Amino acid sequence: MKRIWLEGMKWLGAAGVLAATLTAAEFRDPVEAALTPAPPSPPGLEQGRGPLVLRPPDQLKNRPVWERTARPPQGGIILQPRTPRSRFRPQPPRVEFQDGDRVLLLGEAFEFDRPHGYLQTRMLSQWPDRRVHIRNLGWPGVALLEAQTNGGWGPDIEKLLTPAASWKPTKVFISLGRQDGVIGGIRTNEFREVFDRFLDRLTALNDESPAQLVIVSPPAYEVTRYGLIDAQAANNRTAPYILATWQVSTNRQIPFVNLFGWSIYDSENQRKEAAEQQATLRYYTTDGTHLNGYGMWRLSFGLGLHLRWPHNTWRFGLMADNTMRDGGFGMDILSHHRSTREAWLQGRAWRLPTPNPPGVIDLSENHPQCYIQVTGFDPGLYALQVDGVEVVRGTHKDWAKYRVIAEGPDWGLAEQVRRLVVEKTRAVTRWAGQFADPPAREAAEKEIASLEDRIAKLLKPPARVFYWKRIGDAPEESEADKKPKH
Q1: pTM of the entire predicted model
Q2: Chain Cα centroid distance, residue 38
Q3: Residue-wise over 120-135: b if at least 16 C-beta within 10 A, else e?
Q4: Domain ranges within the chain, ordered by starting residue
Q5: pLDDT tens-digit profile of 290-347?
Q6: CB 47 within 8 A of CB 88
Q7: What is the pLDDT of residues 88-104, one digit of tens each?
């Protein structure tokens, strides 16, 4: 009994260190992080003989955002195993979709995304020239340890795995551990063994070629004003289970996405930023547990950064001498010309941006953004139109520095994709739920195929016309320097 109590206190202590580490971590710019090569996730694995150690990553120097180079936030964790073991060599978690890939999403993080579609939209838009099929089966809301019955898996799980096996996925993204952490007590060793065996079951879903696995940890519970649970205590109980999934992924050389650490890290930094700017704080969740659209939007950035996906943002600069600034990326510039009072440019983005979440459009720099710089304008106020639709205004000084672009026709396309993704997920739910009824299953499959065709036609951005026109004199106070009034 004493040994069990000590074991429980050890894991709670590690979870407390995890929470403290993430809370104290300095914010790092994800815009530059998206362009900088990163270590495995969690970052690095040092061989040591001491106990499991949690320590913060290297801190970023305080420099202007445009001068920073940083590694993607990884949850602020570096773990050391108890004894050196050659198998503890995590591979870089780069996961690339190939044309024709069938990607199965299963587990808690994807259950939260079913009514929102941000994670799946990010996946689909990453390689717009490749046809990728994604089916989000989510999770029925039961913990993994409770799903195990008589050496197998309960009927709720098999109801998902049976249609998944018929589909023969080539990749499986699995997200488990949070519910087990809350209801599972200290059975982390048992959980690790069951989780490892469950991964064997998922690999075997494709009997023609073993499916590639990617482990995505569920997001953390959030401290909110209206939370229905003690989020900090719940995260302390969950942390050992997230570490257990990471240990299994490391042993099996499976890519690991630490959305548990990312969500704590990111929400805490947003909390600090809102307090400093006296701005309204936007929560990840509705009640501390269930993620809302804004939370899934934020997690889509963490997913891309952890998997080292090429950015889905762009930057370019049009100089006073009608040349393009070095260092631009994310958009092919097809043609351009300018004067001191107007400019015209035609360009095509490499991929769609992340669709905006509900509510006020976020123009802050705490996530990857699109930027435009235009130097050499005569003094005045200039409006940017994209395909004839005004997007943003700024003075000559604002444009000479840069302007953040967070809306426009491509964001409209991305939002169409997201809505079709949500509609397709509902069709996938019907397909899995009515799998034993051939006519109903075939009808759902036709609907899914039709929706996938519509999505594929929207994924590749068309060429856009950017036009800057002087619309008046510059106000005394720069548009970029104006502070929101609260």
Answers
A1: 0.79
A2: 16
A3: bbbbbbbbbeebbbbb
A4: 2-87+98-306, 315-349+370-486
A5: 899 999 999 999 899 888 888 899 999 999 999 999 888 999 999 999 999 999 999 9
A6: yes
A7: 344 445 789 999 999 99
| Candidate ranges 45-54, 135-144, 321-330, 362-371; pick with highest mean pLDDT | 321-330
pLDDT at 37: 36
Q: Which residues pair with 153 in a beta bridge?
A: 148
Tokens for 38?
Answer: 């990163």
In angstroms, the Cα distances linking 257 to 211, 232, 241, 431, 479 are 17, 21, 14, 28, 39
Rg (CA), the chain: 24
Round to whole Å and give the CA distance between 119 and 112.
10
CATH topology of domain 2-87+98-306: Rossmann fold (3.40.50)
Q: What gap in Å lies between CA 298 and CA 304, rounded to an integer? A: 11
CA angle 222, 112, 104 (to 5 degrees): 135
* Strand 315-318 to 370-374 pairing: parallel
Residue 468 and residue 384 in contact, taking contact as beta carbons nearer than 8 Å = yes
- What is the per-residue pLDDT across 230-268, written as a single tens digit (0 to 9) for each? 888 888 888 888 999 999 998 898 999 999 988 888 888
Q: Which residues contact 151 (CB under 8 A, 6 or more apart)?
A: none
Cα angle, residue 412 at apex, residues 470 and 120 outer, rounded to 5°:
140
Strand order in the sheet with 370-374: 315-318, 370-374, 403-405
CB 313 within 8 A of CB 330: yes
pLDDT of 448 above 80:
yes
* SS3 assignment for the chain: CHHHHHHHHHHHHHHHHHHHHHHHCCCCCHHHHCCCCCCCCCCCECCCCCCCCCCCCCCCCCCCHHHCCCCCCCCCCCECCCCCCCCCCCCCCCCCCCCCCEEEEEEHHHHHHCCCCHHHHHHHHHCCCCCCEEEEEECCCCCHHHHEECCEECHHHHHHHHHHHHHCCCEEEEECCHHHHHHCCCCHHHHHHHHHHHHHHHHCCCCCCCCEEEEECCCCCCCCCCCCCCHHHHHHHHHHHHHHHHHHHHHHCCCEECHHHHHHHHHHHHHHHHHHHCCCCCCCECCCCCECHHHHHHHHHHHHHHCCCCCCCCEEEECCCCCECCCCECEEEEEEEECCCEEEEEEEECCCCCCCCCCCCCCCCCCCCEEEEECCCCCCEEEEEECCEEEEEEEHHHHHHCEEECCCHHHHHHHHHHHHHHHHHHHHHHHHHCCCCHHHHHHHHHHHHHHHHHHHHHHCCCCEEEEEEEEECCCCCCHHHCCCCC
- Please tell me the predicted confidence (pLDDT) of residue 50: 30
